[in-house]
Amino acid sequence: MIEKEYLLTEEGLKQKEAELEYLKTVKRREVAARIKQALEFGDISENSEYDDAKNEQAFIEGRIAMLEKLLRNAKIIDSDEYTEDVVSMGHKVRLRDLETGVEEEYMLVSSAESDPDNNKISNESPVGKAILGKKIGTVVDVQVPIGVIQYEIVSVSRV
User: Fold this and answer.
1) Same topology between domain 6-76 and domain 79-158
2) What is the pLDDT of residues 7-44, one digit of tens each?
3) Which of 96, 95, 125 is nearest to 110 (CA)?
4) What is the spatial distance between Cα 38 and Cα 25, in angstroms, rounded to a whole number?
5) What would you report as the CA-atom Rg of the chain, rounded to the nearest whole angstrom?
6) Over the chain, what HEC string results?
7) What is the pTM of this model?
8) Pick the CATH number of 6-76 from 1.10.287.180, 1.20.120.450, 1.10.287.70, 3.40.309.10
9) pLDDT digits 0-9 by tens, 118-157
10) Using CB atoms within 10 A of its CB, is residue 55 exposed (0-12), middle (13-18) or buried (19+)?
């Protein structure tokens, strides 16, 4: 079975590696200590501390496995390969909403790095799909639940 390739920026790779290291070295030990302490209370059949710690352990181990897979199949986005006037992965893009005139800046990243709260949008999102590969000055239509929003690509820059 061929595994999915995960596109990451250099910054995203470092963040995922740091998270993995933290989970393996700090969180695993913390949860193991909680489990040990909960076992000292005796009967685990009605021990909510034990159940909580085991649930957290399962979550952490699942996250570790997911991060290891992601890093094993990561491909680093080299934004130097792309031209400045075309929207590419790893670039910052300034968009103007043609209806409101409001401008916003986003960084186009993979779904593995997507973080809308920090203006990092996925290339798989409606906006990401619409702008990927387009040039400065292009107007794109983005289908959203309330209809279509038109954005003009104002600028593109490397991070």
Assistant:
1) no
2) 888 888 899 999 999 999 999 999 999 888 888 877 77
3) 125
4) 21
5) 21
6) CCCCCEEECHHHHHHHHHHHHHHHHHHHHHHHHHHHHHHCCCCHHHCHHHHHHHHHHHHHHHHHHHHHHHHHCEEECCHHHCCCCECCCCEEEEEEECCCCCEEEEEEECCCCCEHHHCEEECCCHHHHHHCCCECCCEEEEEECCEEEEEEEEEEEEC
7) 0.69
8) 1.10.287.180
9) 999 998 899 999 999 999 999 999 988 888 999 999 999 8
10) exposed
pLDDT for residue 82: 60
What are residue 122's DSSP bridge partners?
Answer: 109
**CATH architecture entry for 79-158:** Roll (3.10)
Angle, alpha carbons 15-87-118 (nearest 5°): 35
The one-letter amino acid at 63: R
Domain ranges of the chain: 6-76, 79-158
CA dist., res. 143 & res. 120, Å (int): 19
- Torsion 106-112-113-116 (CA) sign: positive
> How sure is the predictor about 113, in pLDDT bands with cuts at 50, 70 and 90?
confident
Name the one residue in this structure whose structure tokens are 């085991």: 54
